[in-house]
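Lecture 7 notes: from sequence to structure.
We start with the chain below.
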Amino acid sequence: MIAVLDVLRTAGRLLWRHWPALLAWYAAGVLGRYVVIETAGFVGAYNAVAGSLLLPLAILSRLVALVAMLLVVRDGMRQLDAISPLPEDAATRRRQFADALLAGILPFFAFYAAWGFLREDAAAYSARALEVSAGLNFTAIVDKTDPAGDGLAGALTLTPLTFAIVVVAFALRWVLKRYRQRLPRWFGVVAVYLEAVWVYFAALVLSVAIDAVSGWVQTRQAMVWLDDLRVTVSAAFAPLAWIWEGVEWFLGEAGGIILLPLAWLTIAGVVYGQAVAPEPVPTDAIGGGVAASVRSRYRSLPARLRARLRDIWADIASRFTPIGEAIVLMWRAGPVLIGGFVLLYTVLLAVQGWAEWGLLRLIGPHDLNDFWLVFDQAIFLVVPVLIEPIRIALVAGGYDAVIGRLVSRRAAAATPSSAVAPATAPATEATLAAPAGAADSRSDQGSTTKRTLSGQSSDEITSTPNGPTASRGRT
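Predicted structure tokens for the same chain:
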């Protein structure tokens, strides 16, 4: 109960201080998505590849708004600020904003696809492309000329070109990352776009492949036999059918209720960075004899080849490491806090549903053509505009509570029960992670000085980053 109240207090404070900025950023993201989809649909009617290359920008517009909203409330997260203060100079903040965008593309695209938002964008893009294509065809019929465009009406199929786009975008992104320090700052925008392109097209290829495999499996004779067996058993024993349907209903409902808030919390963890990094696992202890043999063969390769393989593996793993660390962070926070956050998020979803229901009842029945087809998008946007700032404040409050819980647990574990901590030196994750030899230097900390997790003396700290690697004390 105390954890739930902490989340509510933090969320309320963040919402009270920042709701105008949150509202503005969300509206900007929605507007950007609409403009990009309309433009991409128009271009896609002429060339499907060009339109598909523009479509990731619609998702990026929502991601930019989300990252901006999460960073807007960052200064009010007291637990996170205690161990990872905000940088003061604007240049560092801009660089960390770009880093947060790059780190958040993969989890956000996965979340966007899993909850059907990507399908909605694709449907809106296809509708716009079909509308423009129909106009082009009509004009061609009237003028008795060949219709403009490639004839695909924006639809992009799996071709060698699709795979080439994934490979080229990934390779260019790797090159920009490798030579980042030598390139102008505006290349960061190109890097974000290339990251979005290869993730989007890779997701497109993966979804088509999964649909093909699933369709093939569903048409196999064994699946028909299993379905017939289920029908026979259910008809002979009705309670078994009830149990089966009840389990399916429970898994469907519970999965949405539990996974959705955890997905939001994971995205927040990726954007804010891991304030409490899990301890690394020695790779030499993984896999037993087979893995040891593989590692031995790898070490026998030429040094130049091993260096290139390490670079490629590090580039791939860096996209998944923040996601894994965010999940570990939630796991170590304990079921009580996470369960309380899920409960609060579920209540927010219920309030959103009631608000949408009430808004429709308030407007009442109207003509479909003269009213709903004209004002439907503006009407259905009212509730999300009001709910989204609350959602972001709740997610930020939940993440801050997770940080506070882990810090307090490590403080309790590091302090003997007989020891009494001084009242003027509050325990932080920085002091907990400091080596034993740094105990004398902690007296210089005082009650307000921020420390990094490396146990450095306060006079050695010039700035503390707020990116995905903020907790490691790296600049």
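Points to note: The longest helix spans residues 2-46. Confidence is low (pLDDT under 50) at residues 274-281, 418-475.
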